[in-house]
Design a protein that fits this description.
There is one protein chain. By secondary structure, this protein is α/β, with parallel strands linked by helices. The chain folds into two domains: about 1-150, SPOUT methyltransferase, trefoil knot domain (Alpha/beta knot, 3-Layer(aba) Sandwich), CATH 3.40.1280.10; about 165-235, Trp Operon Repressor, Chain A, CATH 1.10.1270. The chain contains eight helices and nine strands. The strands form three sheets. A five-stranded parallel beta sheet has the order 2-1-6-5-7, sandwiched between helices. Strands 3-4 form a two-stranded antiparallel ribbon. A two-stranded antiparallel ribbon has the order 8-9. The two termini are about 45 Å apart. S-adenosylmethionine binds near residues 83, 109, 111, 135 and 143. S-adenosylmethionine binds near residues 84 and 136. It catalyses: guanosine(37) in tRNA + S-adenosyl-L-methionine = N(1)-methylguanosine(37) in tRNA + S-adenosyl-L-homocysteine + H(+).
Length: about 240
């Protein structure tokens, strides 16, 4: 997979060299480049913003540098505009994007990017407008980081143990069950007996029930979508 990030704060993306994305680069699964939008400005001050037409507070990112940047790095790509008015980012969307060959992140700042840039991008590749959640960040860099990390860990060959991906929160529509490690007793708190039983069938049933219970408590909206809500009365398998 190839990922290009266009931003006015390239240093913000430094963590991409670390941890998971860094590992994916080392394994040759990911080719990643971060670009400074100001490199596509033509004036002495490297201006990337201007006042909004129609008035109002704040500044808007100018179309010309964005147009030149995308012409150069985004032809044929899936171009992700990070924006609070985009489709919500989910595990399903991460899974979908992990199958794309080339992602380009356009990180907005100020009041956002001139809308004509999005229209122009649609002539170069496939546009996705994606939101990290229902809140407002200062810029799109954190969203690009989060989306990249969620996508890259799904690349085939990235995880040593692919099973750990299959059992995670949101993969089957449920939150993950609680997890424990040694010691079996700590500060007077014991690991549930079933996990020490060695009975794989009972362990799997307990985990499934705990995942459903936790999802019902914390995210009933998710449980309704999985259609398992009717089985909740039978959950006590301890
Ligand atoms: N005025 C914009 C609005 O109300 O929708 C918010 C602009 S925000 C201060 C600046 C930039 O941060 C946005 O252009 C976008 O790239 C990014 N951003 C902010 N919140 C985001 C979110 N929830 N998800 C993804 N990107 C976000």
């Amino acid at each position: 997979m190839r990922i290009d990030v266009v931003t006015i704060f390239p240093d913000y993306l430094a963590p991409l060299a670390l941890s998971l994305p860094g590992k994916a680069r080392d394994k040759g699964l990911l080719d990643l480049a971060v670009h400074d939008l100001r490199g596509w400005t033509t004036d002495r001050h490297h201006t990337v913003d201007d006042t909004p037409y129609g008035g109002g507070a704040g500044m808007v990112m100018k179309p010309e540098p964005w147009g030149r940047a995308l012409d150069e790095v985004a032809r044929g790509a899936t171009i992700v505009f990070t924006t609070p008015s985009g489709e919500p980012f989910t595990q399903a969307l991460a899974q979908e994007l992990s199958g794309h060959e080339h992602l380009v992140f356009a990180c907005g700042r100020y009041e956002g990017i001139d809308q004509r840039v999005v229209e122009h991008a649609a002539t170069l590749g496939t546009v996705r407008e994606i939101s990290l959640g229902d809140y407002v960040l200062n810029g799109g860099e954190v969203a690009a980081l989060a989306i990249t990390e969620a996508v890259v860990r799904l690349l085939p060959g990235f995880m040593g143990n692919a099973e750990s991906l299959a059992e995670e929160s949101h993969v089957d529509g449920l939150l993950e069950y609680p997890v424990y490690t040694k010691p079996a007793s700590w500060e007077g708190r014991d690991v549930p007996d079933v996990l020490l039983s060695g009975d794989h069938g009972r362990i799997a049933a307990w985990r499934r029930a705990e995942a459903q219970r936790r999802t019902a408590e914390r995210r009933p909206d998710l449980l309704a979508a999985t259609g398992v809500i009717s089985g909740l009365a039978d959950l006590d398998v301890r």
